[in-house]
Amino acid sequence: MSEYIGLQQQIKRNNTRSILLLAGFPALILGAFYAIVAVGAKNELGNFDVKLANELFISGLPLVFIGVGIWFLIAFFSHSTMINLATGAKTLERKENMRVYNLTENLCMSVGMTIPKLQIIESDALNAYASGISEKTYTVTLTRGIIDTLNDQELEGVIAHELMHIRNRDVRLLIISIIFVGIFSFIIQVAFRSLMYGALSGGNRRKDGKDNGAGLMLVILLVSLVAYFLSLLFKFALSRKREYMADAGAAQMTRNPLALASALRKISGNAEVEAVKSEDIQEMFIENPPGSTAGFLGEIGSLFSTHPPIDKRIKVLEQF
To answer: What is the pTM (predicted TM-score) of this model?
Structure first.
């Protein structure tokens, strides 16, 4: 995405792609579950039995839905606490930071949205992120470095970008994608540990010499690995699309796309918040530089980047 295609068309295109990517997560869950039950769906001759596979799949769906539902509830409603613990973010005091509060409040009033909480990370890095799942929990967090380094117009552009993530419900989408990826990661760990435990204990075979669950665990591990890999691609693609849309929305909100472009130039190369080690949280920042893998593999490696290249984002903004 290197050319400006019109704000409304860009938003519509990104929303459509995001919906398709989001639909891919439950499709992966169901597809992986069917692949696993299909392995054990054999008739008396040892051949694959489609009818039996369908019956096992349908009968097991309630357990899948219950398991995924419980996982979602726990992860969805505890994410704010986990983020604050991982980043060390604290409340941004109004008295000492009226400049930030004034910029945020003016932007919110211009679009009729509730003013989110403001937090700060005491870091010289230049970065920011939005979090929360409801008006009570919506938060914009800024680093000390980005507040001190950017001028008013540039900081306004960054805050507008984060406000657009809140308005577009991007935070919820990101949480959902992280949760789905986490499900596959958890299954992989359980399957791998089960295989290792069985191998070490010698308990994978019955007295007749036949496998006692090891084969099924291996299948679960392999299927989950494939699903995990695909879910990562979905998550990264979803994240990249939403960054473009937040940039476009911020440009519209401030009517000053060049200020956000200027802010991104200053952020580039200075975005790493060393205290934040979680990749899921790094994905929330306005800039998350790609690792060495992305650079080494070129276009293939870019599939594993959470953000579009910052120079492309700047180019789009300059074409408004």
So the answer is: 0.76
